[in-house]
Amino acid sequence: MLIPVAGPAAGLVFYAVKVPGLACACPHGVAEPDVHGPGNSSSGFIGCSAAGLSNANVDNSFDHNTTPPHTCVLGSKSGQSCATDAECPGTCVKSVGGATAGAPCTSDADCGSVAYNCSSRGCNVNNGPGACSGGTRAGLACATDSDCPSGTCVGAGQGGGLCVGGTNAGKPCHLDTDCPGSICNSPDDTTGNCTTQEPPLPAGSGSTSCLETKTACFGGRITGASCQIDDDCNFGACGTSCATCGNDCNQLSTHPGICNGPWRLTESAAPAAIGTGLIISTTAIGVISTPADGGSCSTDRICTPVAFGATPTSCQVDAQCSGGGQCAGAFCAGICGSGADPRLVGKSCTKDDDCGVAPVPAGACVAGGNYGQKCTGVAGECGGQNICRPVNAAKGYDGVPCTADDPPASQGLASTIPTTTAIASGSGIDANNVAGQQIYSPVSGGTIGTGFCTGKSSCLTAIKGTPFNCTDLLANPPKLSGSCSSGSTKAGQPCATDSDCPNGSGVGTCQGASLVAGFPQIEGAVTLDGIITNRQTAK
Are strands 447-448 and 443-444 parallel, antiparallel or unpaired? Predict the structure, then answer.
């Protein structure tokens, strides 16, 4: 018996995820009517026969670099064979640090050491793993000799990827036929223009390739403005809060001209289990990273009104504000006037230095008549002389992370991925654009093998879920609540939290069905390439 299910986006609620010292992550469901029906962010089936569902293990894999190996990246010799960067010259984008715009270059140092100022250059030597020759990992994919204890790594940089499963799991490959019983996570891009696309779900991931380019600013004061290098998006020293020049599919685009391959989805057999679920979910994970949030997921508000030039007082509620003030996530700010950097004229400001690189002429920030008053982001509420400005731009006008008013950069891009009660995994090759660097955990049936991540002593990129209780699902009315574990004095009884399940020494465990997912992240703002796993548990 198959039970069809669908989940409304409004009902898929996640807590903000604290990543100490790094960021606040914001997962949330996104309605995708063409896939799930109106208002829904998920849909799928639960198998309530003895066989459960077939092929319930799912793997999402990526290859950071699918540009043909040993060819020039962009530039006048784009696509031509090469062995070193010197054979693929570029040009200096701007006159920075004494370099001349338009001068030939083979590295940023030729152009004054400004990042990405030497554009359209480089030989692609970072595509594809080698294979371990000898040692304890003989025949398996590798990036360097250190990946091959008692052996050596041979042939890295010749293109291809690794087999994510089957009889050749973990070995290098170029085509799916190299991986009996599975797929190669990286057939190299043969379109010549980075347009390879996977079939739509359920046959594939539906994702497309992405060419890293530097075309638009992300973050900072002029998000969306055109750019050629990161410095075009910043104003003086920016420390850890620099905006980046990238594009919609890769906001960092740290490797201009490199083609990021599409995610590849594969399914494999899991042990038969009543209540096995396979549900397609459309989810986005936004990341509010340092310095906007260092992992506290805090609410950022100040007492209003606040005087121009005064230091704001932080608060959480109105009672913390003296003189009848209001605690607000946004306030009416001034506007950069004629004395400002031309790129910032008309932008919000709280001081002159917000309007360009110091020293900025006095009066560049025009306070306006409503400066410092509370606002909520409604058009025109601050009048014609002021602009409503969030206390923390990454958290929107309410100052609360992971809410609907956060800016697009904090909400992440939606991806439609499978979640399962069996095993979900992710794998990657050429991670961070290093030939053969891998992120991988082998999966076979109901077993997660020892993970291997280049340069790490251990890693785990797979996660196991828990089947649904079909008796509860088919009851009238149906229910999804968990039940107390066997160690509890209320074993088998319904529960919502662990506190509902006492045992002899304290609190037991509330166990419910859990859907798990594993999916890639390429060039996260802080974490760079990786595999994200998550679990949604019914309680």
Answer: antiparallel
Residue 292: partners with Cβ closer than 8 Å, 6 or more residues away: 241, 392, 393, 394, 395
Q: Which residues contact 258 (CB under 8 A, 6 or more apart)?
A: 64, 65, 67, 73, 124, 126, 211, 212, 433
Distance CA 413, CA 416 (A): 10
pLDDT digits (tens, 9 = 90+) for 521-533: 887 766 688 888 8
What is the distance between the alpha carbons of residues 173 and 180, in angstroms, rounded to a whole number?
11
d(CA 286, CA 218): 14
pLDDT value for 99: 63
The alpha carbon torsion through 481, 487, 489, 493 (nearest 10 deg) reads 20
Asked if 249 and 215 touch (Cβ cutoff 8 Å), the reply is: no
Q: Are strands 387-390 and 330-336 parallel, antiparallel or unpaired?
A: antiparallel
Q: How far is 402 from 224, CA to CA, in rounded Å?
A: 22
> Hunting for tokens 């306030």 — which residue is that?
331
Mapping DSSP to helix (H, G, I), strand (E, B) and coil, where does residue 147 land? helix
What letter would DSSP give residue 159? S
* Global confidence as pTM: 0.81
pLDDT under 70 in the chain at which residues? 95-99, 113, 115-116, 120-121, 240, 496, 504-507, 525-527, 539
CB atoms within 10 A of CB 178: 19
